[in-house]
């Protein structure tokens, strides 16, 4: 099994499907693995998850075909280093506003001489038992994925896409919409077209683009548009979506669930 199954799939131009984990129960990720989902993102930027919660999710995917990515809380050395030392296959960088922000995240996620990640004897290296094997391939196999979700990042996208070793970006439509003056909308104004333009620019450089599907129909549309990383939704969102469908069918009034 390669260190990072997701990276291998994207390199062979496969479309991949994943899940956004926002709750602490690692059984959620275990179900994703059982269903052969390609990846799980554990969200430590929003909500209540801590490192122990993230570790429980990470443990589930060892030596499976599912990759696990941590959406860190900030583009800081400690956030990125700890997530990778726990054994994550990569990190998502939240709210970068420039190529310099993304470069900083890459620097923290790579060992010398390419970066400044410190060498430790933690879970990623199997407590030292897989030390050399991991260090030989970690810089190449670890994915540093910027979340393109600000107007500033969109305007600097050409420089971001030129960063050495960048293999994927992920789009954040809600925050992007807010930075263009459409707070509370998923793809307000011209953001829907902007996201397609960003995907096309990335594809021209061989870089995959990810996005969250807001429904089954939306996920199908994203496949047709060429997105290679599509989240089927979040754990909480999918539960709400399913319950609302059942409640509506049984005659209950339901509140709209707008996003994922």
Notes on the protein architecture:
- The protein is an alpha/beta fold.
- The protein has one domain: Alpha-Beta Barrel (TIM Barrel).
- Helix content is 43%, strand content 16%.
- The protein contains 12 helices and 8 strands.
- It has helices at 5-11, 27-34, 51-60, 77-85, 99-109, 131-141, 151-155, 157-161, 173-179, 191-204, 216-225, 235-249; strands spanning 16-21, 39-43, 67-71, 90-93, 143-148, 168-171, 208-212, 229-234.
- Strands 1-2-3-4-5-6-7-8 form an 8-stranded parallel barrel, surrounded by 8 helices.
- Helix 2 links the parallel strand 1 and strand 2 (39-43).
- The longest helix is centred in the last third of the chain and has 15 residues, at 235-249.
- The protein starts with a helix and ends in an 11-residue tail after the last helix.
The gist of it:
With 260 residues, the chain is an alpha/beta fold. The protein has helices at 5-11, 27-34, 51-60, 77-85, 99-109, 131-141, 151-155, 157-161, 173-179, 191-204, 216-225, 235-249, and strands spanning 16-21, 39-43, 67-71, 90-93, 143-148, 168-171, 208-212, 229-234.
The order of strands across the largest sheet is: 1-2-3-4-5-6-7-8
Structure classification: alpha/beta
**Rounded radius of gyration (Å):** 18 Å
**What is the number of domains?**
1
Question: What would CATH call the homologous superfamily?
Answer: Phosphoenolpyruvate-binding domains
């Amino acid at each position: 099994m390669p260190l990072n199954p997701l990276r291998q799939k994207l390199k062979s131009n496969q479309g991949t499907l994943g899940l956004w984990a926002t709750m602490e129960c690692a059984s959620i990720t275990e179900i994703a693995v059982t269903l052969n989902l390609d990846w799980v993102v554990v969200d430590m930027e929003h909500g209540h998850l801590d490192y122990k919660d993230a570790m429980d999710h990470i443990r589930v995917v060892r030596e499976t075909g599912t990759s696990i990515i941590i959406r860190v809380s900030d583009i800081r050395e400690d956030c990125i280093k700890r997530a990778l030392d726990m054994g994550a296959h990569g990190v998502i960088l939240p709210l970068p506003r420039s190529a310099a922000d993304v470069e900083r995240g890459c620097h923290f996620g790579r060992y010398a001489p390419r970066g400044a990640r410190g060498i430790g004897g933690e879970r990623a290296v199997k407590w030292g038992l897989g030390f050399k094997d991991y260090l030989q391939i970690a810089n190449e196999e670890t994915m540093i994925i910027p979340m393109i979700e600000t107007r500033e990042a969109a305007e600097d996208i050409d420089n971001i896409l030129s960063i050495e070793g960048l293999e994927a970006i992920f789009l954040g439509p809600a925050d992007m919409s807010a930075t263009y003056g459409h707070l509370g909308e998923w793809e307000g104004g011209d953001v829907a077209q902007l996201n397609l333009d960003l995907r096309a620019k990335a594809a021209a450089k061989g870089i995959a683009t990810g996005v969250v599907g807001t429904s089954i129909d939306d996920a199908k549309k994203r496949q047709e548009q060429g997105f290679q990383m599509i989240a089927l939704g979040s754990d909480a969102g999918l539960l709400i979506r399913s319950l609302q469908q059942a409640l509506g069918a049984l005659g209950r009034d339901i509140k709209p669930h707008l996003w994922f």
